[in-house]
Amino acid sequence: MTWTIQRIPEISGPSRIAAYLTAGGAAVAVAGLILRLLGLHPLELGGVVLRDSLGSRYGIEDLLLLAAPLVTCGLSVAVMLRVGLWNIGADGQFFVGAACAAGVGLYGPAWPVLPMLLLMAAAALAGGAAWIAVPALARLTLGTSEIITTLLLNFVARLGVDYLATGPWRDQRSSVTAQSPRVPVPIPRLPHDWHLGRVHWGVFAVLALAVLLALAFRLTHWGYELRICGANRHAAAYAGMKVRRRLGEAMLLSGAIAGLGGMLELAGTVHRLESGLSNGYGYVGIVIAVLAAASPIGCVVTGLLMALVLSAGTALQADGVPSSAAMALTGLILLFAAVGERLAHYRLAVLRPRASGAAG
Amino acid sequence: MLVAQGPGDREDMVSLGRRTLLAAAALPVLPRRVLAAAAFPAVAERDAVIAFGHIGPISDGGWTATHHAAVLAAKAAFPAAKFLEVESIPVSADATRTFRQFIENGANMVFATSEYGDLLSGVADDAPEVAFLECNGHRTADNESWYYVQHWMVSYVLGVASARMSRSGRLGFVGSFPVAAVYGCANAFLLGARSVAPAATCQVILINSWFDPQAASQAASALIQNGVDMIYTNLDDASVLQVAERAGIKCATWSTDMRRSGSNAYVSSLLLDWSPFVVGQVSRRLAGGWSAGPGTLLPVGHGVDRDRWGRTVPPDVGAMADAVRTRIIGGWNPFAGEIRDASGRIRVARGQSMDDAACDAWSWPVAGLTGLPA
User: Fold this and answer.
1) Looking at residues A275-301, what average pLDDT do you find?
2) Is the domain of B204 the same as that of B339?
3) Cα B230 to Cα B294: distance, rounded to the nearest angstrom
4) B1 is a domain residue
5) CA-based Rg of chain A, rounded to a whole angstrom?
6) What is the SS3 assignment for B58?
7) Residue B189 maps to which CATH number?
8) Mind telling me how many Å the CA of B108 is from chain A's nearest CA?
9) Which residue of A has its CA nearest to B91?
10) Closest CA in chain A for residue B184
């Protein structure tokens, strides 16, 4: 009788969640040990982090505001993951969406707020889709890896925003960093008596988008075709599906969603176009989508968790943990989560003598 | 201690500059808004929480290191108070989160050691009981004010010495963004140089960051290849000086004494010392009686100054620049017309001069300066 390790291709939701919880627990234990070695009190700090992030009004508000762009980028990556493609360029599409929205907001028509916001959203969706159109074309006609092309376009987008913020759209009054003037069209905030003062309606737009995507993936024929195209393109083509068309649609949709994320961040939170608009949100989106196994509702959960982990980094710094250590701890937790998810795909099994003989 | 930093003294001053100080003393009319602002109540030292948010790492050896030194000075002065410090806060929504975190942690006073604009003021509006001070900021409110230094004056002095240290008259400048702090610094530097060598020129390269040693080194190398033999930089670290040292040219830097990174190239540095101001502000916040007031501009000799001259600077060059420094401290304004911009247009006519507010909001390159948008 021997032990062996078996791989399970698809794991159930509960076992995935159990894997994350175990991994998270292990990460927190290791982090606590490191903090202890740094001469700090891990339990006390843990309490502080939880209190600051979840136990206070500011904490919840900031969590939601940070989660909004992260979840949007996660959704963007998830859409392409459904068809087995990687969108490494959500960051760039996010910037382009924000730039389009800022352009409309600063130099567009002087309409009332709501139509203005819709126009800015439309511009951002179009901008994000346009930004991924070139990688999509290259992928579908020449077979160029979208991983490389979308990644490289991130730098182009960011430098483009740099150009706008330091050049034609520069706010002459700012003195330390280059940014555009304040975009005069803010997304309205939640009603005052909800006690989430700074949170804007864009957060619900993100949630609605996630639900919409989940329904589309699960209930529509289109969503079904996306899944088959992702699982096995040859089988999908054999079944008469228009594979290239579906892949193209998924890519454009993915870019558009990331672009919309840029618009929401610009009009909801930052209000100025600047190169600090995304602090690597597009890259965090990849982690979010992978941890959520490309499930839109899963993205909302992992996005919120990721926002919690990232804001814990800030809380730790304010409590005297060096910034480099805070960053290392954040990375550690993500590493454990990713490893845990992978490990959940394996299980120890006992092989009977006869079976082990067959396995060679 | 700074001039006129005693309690109750600052209310009737717009700025700590010596000239404006004299002007304010002569004028009986006080700014109305300042009188309306109520003083903050006292806080017991052991209950006090003072927070500092930095733009860069405290180990940058430059800008953020000088602010960190002020934090240490305040800690030494008020050992029972609690101090919060967060480094490398990007100018993005993350900044808002960090400042709100300070409020959440019970901060009585928040220092932003670089400009965060509405990312900070939005937080200040939500926390009227907390005192906010923004370095190089522009906004004043009942609970928010700003502080900065007359860096253009020191840059002018460094320009005078640099013109004498350059053989070719081709000066260089490595900066971050096309913003007022960079225009003011590069313009004043070249104007100082042209007061000695009227044909001097200055080529500017911007690297889109305040702290990016790699990009700063590349920019310095590019300037040197273009024939520049004297570089001035207001970036947060010493990498430009290191490149200058290797290339055998001269360099002046910002924030701290950086001569260890290149003692042959080192001309001088624009030294920053925030400690007296920061300790004074914290002291007033704790004692009660802090009020936002107008912004504070620290003058030459009281928060900003040139460093001891480098070992390769001839004594007569140092003495000449120091004579200019002495005149500036005595109240002389070097930014008097006629000053033309890079396109040749007269911006400051003969008989007029640029005051501190104009220097602090500089947005056009002076004649002879290339690389900054007009």
Assistant:
1) 90
2) yes
3) 37
4) no
5) 22
6) coil
7) 3.40.50.2300
8) 14
9) A276
10) A175
Rounded alpha-carbon distances, angstroms, from residue A44 to A212, B183, B330: 41, 47, 55
Rounded-to-integer distance, Cα A315 and Cα A255, Å? 32
CB spacing of B115 vs A277 below 8 angstroms:
no
The residue that leads in pLDDT, A59 or B345, is B345
d(CA B361, CA A139): 49
Task: Return phi, psi of residue A346, to 5°.
Answer: -120, 150
Distance from CA of A53 to the nearest CA of B (A): 9
Across the interface, do A314 and B87 touch by the CB < 8 Å criterion?
A: no
- Per-residue pLDDT at A176: 64
pTM of the model: 0.80
What's the confidence (pLDDT) of residue A174? Answer: 66
pLDDT tens for A76-93 read 999 999 999 999 999 999
Give the pLDDT band (50/70/90) at residue A350: confident
Token code pair at residue A102: 């800022």
Parse chain A into domains and list their residue ranges: 13-40+321-360, 69-183+195-319
Number of domains in chain B: 2
Calculate the dihedral angle through the C-alpha atoms of B252, B254, B260, B264, rounding to the nearest 10 degrees: 0
Q: Are residues B78 and B53 in the same domain?
A: yes
Q: How many CB atoms lie within 10 A of CB B220?
A: 28
Token pair for residue B335?
């930014």
Distances (CA, A) of B322 to B153, B156, B192, B298, B332: 12, 11, 12, 19, 13
B216 & B324 share domain: yes
Q: Is residue B145 domain-shared with residue B226, that is, in the same domain?
A: no
Per the prediction, chain A carries an average pLDDT of: 87
Name which residue leads in pLDDT, A60 or B148: B148
Residue at B127 is within a domain: yes
Q: Determine the pLDDT at residue A328.
A: 78
Contact A178, B178 (CB under 8 A): yes
Residues in chain B with pLDDT values less than 50: 1-36
B361 and A173 within 8 Å at the Cβ level: the answer is yes
Give yes or no for B9 touching A (CB within 8 A): no
Q: Provide the angle, in degrees to the nearest 10, between the axes of the packed helices A323-343 and A13-37.
A: 150
Q: Which candidate from A59, A271, A318 shows the least CB-CB separation from B102? A: A318
Structure tokens of A153?
Answer: 């376009």
Interchain pair A174, B208: CB under 8 A: no
Chain B residues close to A271, C-beta within 8 Å: 118
Question: Could A276 and B92 be called an inter-chain contact, meaning their C-beta atoms sit closer than 8 Å?
Answer: yes
The answer, for B128 touching chain A at a CB cutoff of 8 Å, is: no
